[in-house]
Each structure stands twice: as C-alpha cells, then as structure tokens.
Write a structure and sequence with these properties.
Rossmann fold, globular
Length: 733
C-alpha cells in the first residue's frame, strides 16, 4: 500500500495542488508498471496466426532469390496472378525464425504488446494507465506475430507523437516520415498513419473556430507540422512498387469488402440488450464494452471542455471498433491516449479540491487495488482459459497446425498437387514449400472471393462426385489434407471422406487427415499406409507434458471420434479432457452433441446448458440449444435461444433470422416475424439476395412475409409478396 505522507494542517491551495500532483505521478508509475507487466504476459502466446505461414514463406523466397516478386509464387491455382505485398515483415520474421524458431516469434509478439502499451503511456497519466490495463486484452489479440502487428505498433507511435504536438506544439514530427518508410514496407495498414494525420489536421481546423489564443496556436502548429505531414505522404512512395502500392491497397480493400461476409475478424461487434449487461462487467477477458463506455464518457467530457476535435476523434474510433472487430486494438489506442488525456484533465481539475491528504491516499490506493486486481485476475484467466482457444500461454508453435500431417507428407513423398483448406494454406506454404504449392491460403487478392466459395463447395460435396473429379483432373490433385481440430467445420465431412472410393485415408490424427487419390501409381502407398477410420487410435502419439497440451489432445480426439460416430470413445476422451480443465465450455458442448446424436435429449440439454453457463457469449452454444428445443417442440424456448445466438453473433445471420421469423409465425406473432424477415434481408449479402429458385433465400423471405401479412389480415400486401415469391422462382436476366 502507498504510505500517506504527513501534510501540514494549514495547507494552501498551491500546496494541495502540488501534493495531488505528486500523488498522481506515483499512481501513474504504479499503474503503468502493472499495465506493462500485464501486456508482456498477455502477449506471450504460442504462434497461432494462419497468415504468418505465407509471410514466413515470403521472407524465405526473397532471401533465397534476392528479388521481390509481384505475382503469386506459392499456389498452383493462382500462380502468376498479381500479388503485391510489403516484404519487410516477412524478411524480419524469417530472420527471427532462423535465429530462435517459433519461440522467438512468440517473444516478438510479447514484445510488440509491451511496446505498444509503452508507446501509449509515453506521456500518460494515472487515468490513461488505468484505461491501458483494460485495453491490454484487445491489444494482445492483435499483437500475435504477423505483419499486422507493425501497423498497431506504428499507429501507437503516430498517435503519441501527434497528440503531443496537438497538446504542446512540440513533438518530434520528423519521425513521422521515417516511420512511414518502415511502415509502407512492413504492412498494407500504413493508411492508418495517414488517417491519423488527417484526423489531427481536422482537429486543428476545428480549433481555428475559437478566437484568440486557441486560433493562433492552432495556426502555428499547422504551419510547423505541414512540411512533415507532406513528407510523410511522399514517404509512402519509398517502396519497391512506388505508386503501385496504392493499386495493391485498392485491390486488398476490395477483396476484404467481399471477404468480410465470412471472415470473423471483419465482423461487427454486437450492440443490443443481450450484451448491454456486460458493459459494466469486469468478468470477461475481452472488455470491449467497458472501453466503449469510457470512450463515450470521454467524448462528452471533451464537448463540455470545448474540445470538439477530440470528441469527434473518439466517436470515429469507436465507430470503427464497433463496425469491425479487427479495429478494436487501433481504436483502443485512441481511447487510451485521447480519452485518457481528456478524462485526466477533468480529474485534475477536481482532485485538488480534496485537501484531506488521507482521503486522497485512500482513494488512490483503492483505485490501484481495483486495476491491479483486474490485471492479476485476467492474467490468471488468460493462462488458464487459453486451453479452450487456438493459442496457449507461452512460446512456441500452437497445437492446431497440421505439423505431424505435413511431416508425414514430406516423409512419404506423397504425390502432388495437394488440396488444402483456406485456414491451413499459409502454414503449408511455409512447411511444405517450395516443393509443394498450396491450393488456397489467407491472401485474398491472387485467389479472389470465388476461390474460397469454390473450396467450401468442394468440401460440402462427396469426394467421389464429378465436381471433385473435375477439380482433381484440372489441377492434378493427388493428395488432400483436411483440418480436423475442434474449431473446424470440416469435421462433419470426415466420415464421408473416410468412406470414399476414389480417395483413401493414409494418415489420421486428432488435428488432420490425409487422403490420397486412388490411382495405379498410388496403390502401393495406400496399401502400406491405409488408415481404418473406424478403429484408428486417438489421440495419436504420446501425451505432452503440459496441461493445456494434454487437454487439447483429448478434446480434439473427442471431436474426431464424435465425427466418426464412435460415441462412447468420444465421451471417454471428453471426460479425460474435462479432468484436466474442468471449466472448459467446449467439453460439455461436445458431450451435448454426442447425447443429441444418440437421442438422449435430456442429457444433451444438461450439457448444452453447462456450456452456456461456462461461456454465455458463444453463439454456437445457443444455436445448439435452439436446435434441441425445436426438435422437442418447445417453441418459446427455441425462440429465446435463437434470439440470444443471433444477438451475440459478430457475423450476419440472415438464414438464422429467417428461422427465427418462421418460429414467430408458428406462435402467431406475425409482427415479430416481419421484423425478423426485414432484418434478415438487411443483413444478407448481395449474392444471397440475387439467388433464385424454390429454395432461395429471397423466395423463403417473400413466402414468409406473405404468410405474416395474411395473418394480420392485410390480404393486399400478402398477395403482393406472393407475386414476388413467384418471380423469385424465375431466373434473373
């Protein structure tokens, strides 16, 4: 505890201000140290980012060929297609891997999290340090080793410099163009730096609306900063492609706009009554809503202090944060620096009015204890609960990568080309390249959105179908590797692949499956390595020493066994996983799936409710409950679970909204049904709305709307939607 100094009884106002200032400085040092220690701990995670693989492969290719490529060189489906991406990050990661392997890459992520928070607190206060502690989980989520991490670090540096210049008129603005030269060669997120400059120029222009000293100071700051701002914009051209980097940026943004319909990190944060109760909660490890509330308060305080520019900046940052989950870390930086400064100024004007020194020290100690407790409990939770995530605490490679399957492919020299999924592509480009090229990976531009949809269509088709035969013949595909870890939807197709005639399983573990096309030249390999999915022992290999590792082995084995219909073995593996990590939300959900498949609905409900209780913010658990309740005819409970799932989802759920609307029609609630239909149409992507036919989304919506209006007695509107449903059956020109 901070000790309370003895102050004279006859303190002057100046004495009180000085004492309060010293207290604030000490509180900042303590909270800042807590924030930095928390950041280092939260950032130390196993390497789990899929995109890091192709970035490592980029560094290796450039280092080996001594040149920078402008077309795809990693895949066989998009080879030679335009592909421009900064190579500095790939070279840096490749060098780090050569020096210290995956462990050093993990420590780079920890250092990035630590460095980002340190930059945000460079000229901070106790208030900004407290906000930084809340923001650490959001920042840590984006500082995993991949190219994006450089955008976060450099944005924090830009924000710190620009805010210092805005407040004092004295900052090292000459650093901006130098940092931009690095930024444009590290990641395509460099426009965030230009956007920050534009935002602060706008703030200075708003300052000119106030006469007198504020206007003169704003003009002087802009006059001094303008040359450096222009130099920063010019510095973006210091890259291997010059103006071409902007063409790449346009293509990237266009691709991301299309991919946002299925990439979770580009989804939006849910804002509704279901999540409103979490705004004041310190329980979760993802305190987005607390920061959102702090930003709103800071924006209102800024308006009261006649700082409209700061208020607009805070609102704009939080808007981006709500719109795209991926922007949470960048927006949090703004809340820490700008929101922290605004709130500190308000606190600073009030705290000296409390002349009683013991009260000030008691308040300071209480504040420190609250934030220290937050950091400590969340650090402990990060270490413990990471067993239910792709990344675990500590250095090294994450458990979910198909490392053993890739080694099997290399060892047995399996015939290429190899079909892989989007999520595995980056790692396989790194692990198996350059000998083997990938089918698809996380790079949006060379493949285009159609490639991802086509990959999904293949996975939903039988491997013995004409579609697979055409694809295999076109690209000479002889090997398939599919992910089977518990976070992948491909699990549901495993039995179909195992029973294929044209493709035979030659490798299976709890993470991946490898299948070889049956041809005369592969018969010997199939006979030598063929796997019987009905009897294969899982998990494969010895159990690892760490608790998180053993949990993941048993949990993933349980998932694969359940997918194969080996239910008793799946329950046994799930029980072993639960003994290691009793608080897991995944294990009861999986057990619920097994019981549901066996027809034991009461046991399934018990397990689903246990999963929801352990982690109430996971939409999948609520959707599972809704499915169970629907099968049992419990419509009111189905509607409740379905609504919870939709409101918690970060991605659009148009088809689930149609299901909700039909449930409302079943219980004679046509108005609620119409609202759900309307929301479904608003959230549906253009390609879904454009589809025609008797099972199309638009046909189902128009039929449902007709039924709802008919139930309300409006036969004219019902007939109108009946006509639209008929039009939906016709092919569009």
């Amino acid at each position: 505890m901070l000790s309370s100094p003895a102050l004279p009884a006859n303190l002057s106002t100046t004495d009180v201000k000085v004492a309060a200032s010293r207290l604030g400085r000490r509180l900042f040092l303590v909270l800042g140290a807590i924030a930095l220690a928390y950041a280092l701990l939260a950032g130390l995670r196993t390497v789990a980012e899929p995109d890091l693989g192709w970035q490592l492969a980029t560094g290796r290719w450039v280092a080996q060929h001594h040149r920078i490529f402008s077309t795809d060189v990693f895949s066989y489906t998009a080879y030679g297609e335009p592909w421009i991406y900064p190579v500095g990050s790939g070279l840096g990661f490749y060098a780090a891997y050569l020096l210290g392997g995956y462990a050093l890459l993990s420590w780079i992520g920890a250092a990035a999290c630590f460095g980002t928070v340190a930059l945000l607190l460079r000229r901070g206060s106790a208030v900004s340090a407290g906000i930084a502690i809340l923001a650490v989980p959001l920042i840590a989520a984006r500082t995993a080793p991949r190219a994006e991490v450089f955008t976060l670090i450099l944005f924090a540096a830009y924000l710190s410099i620009l805010w210092q210049n805005y407040q004092t008129g004295r900052a090292c603005l000459w650093l901006l163009p130098l940092l931009m030269i690095a930024w444009v060669n590290l990641h395509l997120g460099f426009p965030a730096g230009l956007a920050a400059i534009v935002a602060f120029v706008g703030m200075e222009l708003l300052e000119m609306l106030f006469p007198g000293t504020r206007r003169r100071e704003a003009v002087e700051r802009l006059r001094r900063a303008s040359p450096w701002f222009v130099a920063t914009a010019v510095a973006t051209l210091v890259n291997p492609w010059g103006w071409g980097i902007y063409q790449a940026l346009v293509r990237q943004n266009r691709a991301m706009a299309q991919h946002s319909a299925w990439i979770l990190e580009w989804g939006s944060a849910p804002l509704n009554w279901t999540v409103a109760a979490r705004i004041l909660s310190l329980r979760g490890t993802h305190p987005f809503y607390l920061l959102l509330m702090i930003a709103a308060i800071a924006a209102m305080v800024a308006l009261l202090q006649r700082q409209p520019g700061a208020a607009i900046l805070l609102v704009g940052a939080t808007y981006q944060e709500v719109r795209h989950i991926r922007m949470e870390a960048l927006s949090s930086c703004v809340v820490v620096v700008v929101g922290g400064a605004i709130l500190f100024s308000a606190v600073h004007h009030m705290r000296w009015r409390t002349p009683n020194a013991p009260i000030r020290w008691i308040l300071a100690t209480a504040i420190m204890a609250v934030f220290a407790g937050f950091a400590f409990t969340h650090s402990a939770r990060l270490v413990k609960s990471d067993q239910d995530s792709r990344s675990t605490f500590g250095p090294g490679l994450s458990w979910w990568f198909p490392e053993r399957a890739a080694e099997f492919i290399q060892r047995e020299d399996l015939p290429g080309e190899i079909f892989n999924t989007y999520i595995d592509g980056g790692y396989l480009a790194w692990k198996l390249g350059p000998k083997y090229r990938d089918y698809i990976d996380g790079r949006a531009i060379p493949f285009g959105p159609e490639a991802f949809l086509h990959q999904a269509e293949l996975l939903q088709s039988s491997p013995d179908s004409a579609l697979w035969q055409q694809e295999a013949d076109r690209y000479h595909i002889n090997t398939i590797i599919i992910p089977l870890n518990r976070f992948e939807s491909v699990l549901g197709r495993l039995r179909i692949f195992c029973n294929s005639i044209d493709w035979r399983p030659v490798y299976l573990d709890e993470i991946s499956g490898v299948f070889v096309r049956r041809k005369p030249e592969t018969e010997d390999l199939i006979q030598r390595s063929q796997v019987d999915c009905a009897t294969a022992s899982l998990p494969v290999g010895p159990l690892v020493s760490s608790g998180a590792g053993r949990f993941n082995q048993w949990a993933d084995a349980a998932s694969v066994l359940a997918a194969l219909g080996r239910n008793s073995e799946a329950l046994s593996a799930a029980d072993k996983a639960r003994l290691i990590f009793p608080d897991s939300s995944f294990v009861p959900w999986l057990r619920g799936n097994v019981f549901y498949a066996e027809g034991s609905r009461s046991e399934a409900e018990r397990e689903y409710l246990a999963a929801v209780s352990a982690e109430p913010s996971v939409p999948l658990f609520w959707f599972s409950l809704a499915t169970l309740y629907k099968q049992e005819g419990r419509i009111l409970e189905t509607i409740h679970a379905q609504r919870e799932a939709i409101q918690l989802s970060t991605m659009p759920q148009p088809f689930e909204l149609v299901k909700l609307a039909r449930l409302c029609l079943e219980i004679q609630q046509p108005k609620a049904a119409l609202q759900a239909f309307d929301e479904a149409v608003r959230s549906a992507p253009p390609d879904v709305l454009a589809a025609t036919g008797g099972s199309s989304f638009k046909f189902e919506v128009d039929q449902g709307r007709a039924a709802a209006w008919r139930s309300l007695g409006d036969t004219k509107r019902a007939a109108s939607f009946d006509e639209e449903a008929v039009q939906d059956l016709l092919p569009r020109k």
